[in-house]
Design a protein that fits this description.
By secondary structure, the chain is an alpha/beta fold. 43% of the residues lie in helices and 17% in strands. It has 13 helices and 12 strands. The chain has a 5-stranded mixed sheet. A 5-stranded mixed sheet has the order 8-9-10-11-12, sandwiched between helices. It has a two-stranded antiparallel sheet with strand order 3-4.
Length: 488
């Protein structure tokens, strides 16, 4: 009995040591991100995304490649006739005839099975070759897309640079519980990367300092980490995360792409007035490459470094007390200062034949000329442009959702309904759906009931481009265009 109790106490002590070692290792891990992460420099180029096609060998099931043993007559032939059977030859001949029938049946069944096996093997080989061809084609298409992205980065295309930077920064190897939710935008003049980095909550810092076993109560209890220490460790952690994402931004290749990086570290919270989810900015800093190159990340104190860089830092980040960021985290990723969309377009450009990036820039420039600001291009899955913009007009202004469809046929009613849903989600005061083609009666009826959506068809789009950009364009071939207008 005494030995059993001693073993139990020893087991509890082992558990205490394990728990204490784990909580200390976690605390050390979170406080040493800069020293660990800067051990080897991280760089990233678009070519790092390319994949090499390696064919998979054809490995059919064993039965497909292993022929059966063919039937042999000796396996079916009756034994030599006995003396008695020699005297009664008819009986032995009957046995021999039956054996020959069995042998013939076995041969037929064998040939049928072999035919089935060889056909199945051929089909399996064809399926494998088709799968390999599809995989090879998919990889070629992927690498072609990487090539387009690489050219975009070389040309300092805002969307391409932002996409590559986001891919790189979200691939960082960070401790468990640290999100890599990062949003990025690129401004060409100056060459500035805008980064919104999601920060963890203060609960990421272990509340326990160590553990001990209380023999009198036969219980493992924890010693709490002081509130002051948890807050200091949290402030240090989020400062490290901001510096690390800044480091990764400057490590993007080619190095001449980015001269300045602005980072806003935000934490998920709620608006106390509305109860709605709302990100709260805790840190906002802007750093030039020259400033950052003078830093030795593995040797500095993260909190002191942010002060040195004149960062805006929440005085009480653990309470989610927000600061006013250097740029708007909600729209910063869309503040793109791209070159004029019309610089390479002549006076008779065909809208339906424009490349997607040319069409996007044309629509962006048009609406900026009309008066929209803080243009926010988002991904579109149907050969068009989805965007969020702000109109500063005190009466008609507010957030506006703009969708442009580079179509050659009628825009279905589903597109109008989808725009209404996006407007509700974005709490937008206005929506605009513009197309190179035209809308049907159902769309106009829906817009009439909704009251906050404007439809712009091909002829009006052509007129707006001429009025605001001074460019005469051709709409292009439109299938089934209504009689009230022509596509020229």
């Amino acid at each position: 009995m005494r030995d059993k109790q001693a073993r139990w106490i020893e087991e509890q002590k082992v558990q205490v040591r394990w728990l204490t070692d784990n909580v200390r290792a976690r605390a050390d891990e979170l406080s040493g991100l800069l020293s660990v992460s800067t051990g080897s420099a991280r760089t990233f180029a678009v070519d790092d995304l390319r994949r090499t096609y390696t064919p998979d060998p054809h490995s059919p099931e064993r039965w497909l490649v292993t022929p059966e043993r063919a039937p042999l007559w000796q396996d079916f032939a009756p034994p030599p006739p006995t003396v008695w059977e020699k005297l009664q030859k008819s009986r032995w001949r009957i046995r021999e005839a039956e054996a020959k029938q069995d042998y013939a049946r076995a041969v037929t069944e064998y040939e049928q099975r072999e035919a089935h096996r060889t056909a199945a093997l051929a089909q399996d080989m064809a399926s494998h070759e088709a799968a390999e061809a599809a995989r090879r084609e998919q990889m070629e298409q992927y690498n072609a897309a990487v090539g387009v992205l690489a050219r975009g980065v070389d040309d300092a295309d805002p969307d391409s640079v932002a996409q590559v930077a986001e891919l790189f920064m979200t691939s960082a190897d960070l401790p468990e519980g640290i999100s890599t939710d990062i949003r990025v935008a690129y401004v060409t003049a100056p060459r500035r990367l805008l980064v919104v980095r999601q920060l963890p909550d203060v609960t990421v810092i272990p509340a326990e300092r160590e553990f001990r076993y209380v023999r009198a109560r036969d219980e493992i209890v924890s010693t709490a980490r002081s509130l002051k220490e948890r807050r200091e460790r949290y402030a240090d952690l989020i400062a490290q995360l901001v510096l690390l994402v800044t480091r990764d931004a400057f490590a993007l290749l080619p190095l001449t792409t980015i001269d300045e990086v602005a980072v806003s570290g935000v934490v998920a919270g709620r608006n106390t007035a509305t109860g709605q989810p709302e990100d709260k900015c805790l840190i906002s800093v802007s750093v030039t490459r020259e400033q950052f190159d003078r830093l030795v990340l593995s040797e500095l104190d993260a909190v002191s470094c942010l002060k040195h860089l004149n960062a805006l830092v929440s005085p009480h980040p653990w309470d989610h007390e927000p600061i006013r960021p250097l740029f708007d985290p909600d729209l910063s990723r869309y503040k793109i200062d791209a070159a004029s969309a019309m610089s390479g377009v002549d006076h008779r450009t065909v809208l339906t034949e424009l490349a997607p990036i040319e069409f996007e820039r044309l629509i962006r420039e048009l609406f900026e000329a009309i008066g929209m600001e803080a243009w926010a291009t988002q991904g579109s899955r149907d050969d068009g442009v989805d965007a969020v913009a702000v109109n500063r007009d005190p009466i008609m202004g507010g957030v506006c959702v703009i969708q442009a469809k580079r179509y050659t046929k009628v825009v279905e009613i589903e597109a109008v309904r989808a725009l209404a849903g996006v407007m509700e989600d974005m709490r937008a005061s206005r929506g605009v759906l513009v197309t190179t083609a035209y809308f049907g009666k159902a769309s106009y009826d829906f817009v009439g009931r909704h009251g906050k959506i404007q439809l712009i068809e091909g002829p009006e789009l052509k007129h707006l481009i001429a009025e605001h950009l001074g460019i005469d364009v051709v709409i292009g071939h439109i299938r089934g265009a209504p009689r009230r207008w022509t596509a020229n």
